[in-house]
């Protein structure tokens, strides 16, 4: 209950304070390329219930038809404004809407698309999907340059499935085992420090 109350208060305040920034981002996206402001994609949420995540659109409107689920290096589908939003992680701020709706939390394992969740073991599904997915978590901070790592791989899809995803899942399981409001505050503080100082 304390975690959900914290999520609601912080997400509500953040959405109000960031409304002017959201408007500027939306305008920049519309001026840069045709298509919607938000990118909506099905992800797997708590208890395996699917939901459609919010992100500010960073790719061309028909990006899903042009390539794989993962983004590798300087993906040609990424727009000019999208490259800036991705680099600064501003595209993820739209998920405050998902937090307010209750499908996500501020901190929790990042939600995956169904095709990758299908690779989870039963034990991983039971543990990781027992909590709401989050905007940030220790694994997403460690792999914040994931697309650059994948760009150096001979087979990016295989590298993600066999190397990066297992490592992220181990961290997700550890998060679930150790999560408290205090550990969430530490993750949020680390996230803000990285975003503000690019550390």
Automatic annotation (TrEMBL):
Q: Which domain of life is it from?
A: Bacteria
Under InterPro entries, the record lists: Bact_transf
Using the record's annotation, list all stretches that form the Bacterial sugar transferase domain: 3-196
**Pfam families this protein is in?**
Bac_transf
UniProt keyword terms in alphabetical order: Transferase
**GO: which molecular function terms?**
transferase activity
The UniProt similarity line reads:
Belongs to the bacterial sugar transferase family.
Name the chain's protein. Sugar transferase
User: From which organism does this entry originate?
Assistant: Caldimonas aquatica
